[in-house]
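Supplementary Note 3. Input sequence used for the single-chain structure prediction.
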Amino acid sequence: MSKQFDLVVIGAGPGGYIAAIRAAQLGMKVACIDAWQNGKGGPAPGGTCTNVGCIPSKALLQSSEHFEQVNHHFGDHGIEVKGVSLKLDKMLGRKNEVVKQNNDGILYLFKKNKVEFFHGKGSFAGQADGMYQIKVSGTTDADLVAKHVVIATGSSARELPGLPFDEKQILSNDGALNIDAVPKRLGVIGAGVIGLEMGSVWRRLGSEVTVLEAMPQFLAAVDETIAKEAAKVFDKQGLKIHTGVKIGEIAKTARQITVPWTDSEGKEQKLVVDKLIVSIGRLPYTGGLQAETVGLKLDERGFVQVDDHCKTNLPNVWAVGDVVRGPMLAHKAEEEGVAVAERIAGQHGHVNFETIPWVIYTSPEIAWVGRTEQQLKADGVKYKAGSFPFLANGRARALGDTTGMVKVLADAQTDEVLGVHIIGPVASELIAEAVTIMEFRGAAEDIARICHAHPTLSEAMKEAALAVDKRALNF
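The predicted structure, written as discrete structure tokens, is reproduced below.
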């Protein structure tokens, strides 16, 4: 006999589990279906982000950063360390434990909020009398019925044509997080967020890393000033990055991978590596959803078609996160999940795509929100710019990490903040102030007039805002 719910959420990634919890808080009877498994076959909610994305990558980035600090930077602080060794299995074990803690945390939140969890794959089985039949296949087979359905099935890594992932030599983000020995030579195709973060992890641990990027400009989506600074820093660190690359036919043997490529000047090159990470984007995951059973519309790329409110072409069927238009970011999915739950409850959920922050967790970190200087120029917007280097920030000096800057862009007439771009220590945390100011349509003067604690890295934000009006106090 079918179990009946007000809402069934298919997928327990950041968009799905958050939508389920918020809907339950609003008084709905909610079920959430998810097929991710841990190493023992048990449930592992959290989607790509928790299992093979945001969380494990940050754990390895933190561990590898410690390794680099003790090997190359502790001496600057008068700390001498001898006989440093790497226990990679323990480092990977810690990463796995961090993932498990997050999995368990989501299961606890489901129980706390009375969300019924089903471990398996969810698919449409039919529609009748304004209700949707959802079939669960997996550890817990079940038939569910619901008035509302939220699709939050996420995305999967895109393969190079003719070169499938084997997660041993040809690696997606999943395999890149589980290399069992530090490769001497590591290749990365794609200089995006995942490529740079994973390349940074293994470079710190001892790999010779080469990154090949098809785009002619490095980090084309990032403010040009910040991207140029990043390229300079990464090159100094030993991360070899080539842009404007055309990849030839890749050959793989049991011992190595050969990547023929043509550089931006048309010169033929060859890269021979032990492991190859392919990071060329992600595809919406709708396989097995049985969308055709109920007439759910997908676009030519496989994304679920939605309007500005995350509504599909079907009444009471919604979709959020990586499986719909917009940036593939966990926090974007979360915001959409909350908004949809509130819309189902008759409220007015809202997501402002103009104030969604982006972060690359390299060292230094890169973070931004709003428009870049090149976008403002292209749009013909008159603006003012102010920047402040961490080199002139007292806390950054004390930390021994003065790389980078904060850059603030404001409307030339109204002074409204149009974009903030940061490269430097803990940029991922500093960007939140900019997001807040922009949500309230604040001005650079507002940031400049707010008292920031001293000494803090956040003072660089204040100084950059002051610099918009050419009155920085410490530079």
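The mean pLDDT is 97. Residues 140 and 302 are 27 Å apart (CA to CA).
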